[in-house]
Prior knowledge:
The protein is an alpha/beta fold. 38% of the residues lie in helices and 24% in strands.
Amino acid sequence: ALKFADVIVKAAKRAGQLTRQLLSLSRKDAVTRRVVNLNEAVRTTGKLLSETLDRKIRLEFDLTPETTNIKADETQLGQVLLNLAINARDAMPEGGTLRFTTRTEDDKVTVRVTDTGTGIDPENLSRIFDPFFTTKEKTKGTGLGLSVVYGIVKQTGGTIDVKSELDLGTEFIITFPASSEPRKDTAQKETRLAGGAEKIMVVDDEPEMLNLLETAMKDLGYTVVCAKNGMEAVEQAAEDIKLVILDMIMPEMDGMTALRFIRQKTPDVKVLISSGYTSPEKVPMLERIGIEGFVQKPYELGKLASTVRDVLDGVAV
Length: 317
């Protein structure tokens, strides 16, 4: 169970790093390229999708047995695959099939992401990689996803093409240069993570993040209550909840406002602020307003687990 929790929190970490990149598109952020197995990246993305996609969407994988090593930033590669999968999901509101295919040819490695969704109108096909272009409703997103995918693929030395037919589906074809460099073993020994049996509440307006955090905490042994905004958090606050992991930026009621109401309702509850935007320099200021600690998104499972345990035990963090 903890191994699965580690997988999903790593996926959440990639999602959080994507958010940071979206907030800094105008800058050239440093990337770390190393030899990565494309098949393994697809499998990791598949594990996340199998837990978060609607059951009406069928996942299929056709992965070559050949070596699929490429030189890429592992986090960015995960972002590319996840973004394309999210686009495919949004194109299949009634369900369908999402398929990942990998192939090798000469000195190239290709991954195809195919869906059986609504397809893309021909007049929009040439514009889908433009920043801020989107056919989604305004509330569904900014349209940055595919432009980020395009930028990452190009930075990695690859190419991306798209084929689509209305009412039949869409296929993205990404080709990377193959790498013949030896792959370094980055596997780390599994360590036992500190858990507990207390009741905690996790608050986040992003459904995927809320689901991932809930699963990780449950796998550590905790009883978990979920709230998708500040108002729900205030409504569900109760004396038997020992800790609240509270997102800062949310609709309806932000984390700071929710914190004040939660403190009024349950003065003794311990609170961890969670944010991908608040800088670590602001943590002392946050602590002065009555929180026990701060966890930075994207989460590291080991750090998150130890921080939660320390706060519950009254250890300074």
